[in-house]
């Protein structure tokens, strides 16, 4: 569900019951600061304009929470300032309002609500991130057939790549990310999730999950009637685990081709 008011979009997604993969994905949200007082797990993530993303990116404040077998995604999407002299959205105020709304909605766990401070606006790390070094923009362009240049956005233990046509179906709508979890291989030691596929020949063990979700503001993209296909490949190698995610607008009937391109790319990434 989403609601728009004066340049702000409020989006709510509640999965009940949530799958094991949805709960695991929520708990592994990159650059997500812990929130105390909500459910079994909660964190807040600031993306887009808050992280210095170019091209008029929206300012996104995202709260992820897990309670038992339920997973909640609540986000505020604000327009960036139209001129440098205009003050931008307040990440602290947005985070506090999201957290308070969740508690008032019955997700408080009885402990004190503590909301982390938003990071300074702008890129968080330098572009020489070791995670970004795992895969180059040229390798991504070749693998998926993209023609535009990608913006590379390093984070803490992760790297994201945004290509140049996020609202137009095709390879240049690609949003690709890599998360590296040192010592995290045990997360793949359990049984295969109901919505997971075992992929042979990638690392020591690999699980692929494919889902579809609406395009537009909820997916942090320009408006589009085409759904977003999300492919997440979790790979264990030695003691470590990496999660590779490709989010792309694709035409009906091309999912298998894109899946093959994605798996072939990841197979050649060493970490």
TrEMBL record:
<protein>
    <submittedName>
        <fullName>Uncharacterized protein</fullName>
    </submittedName>
</protein>
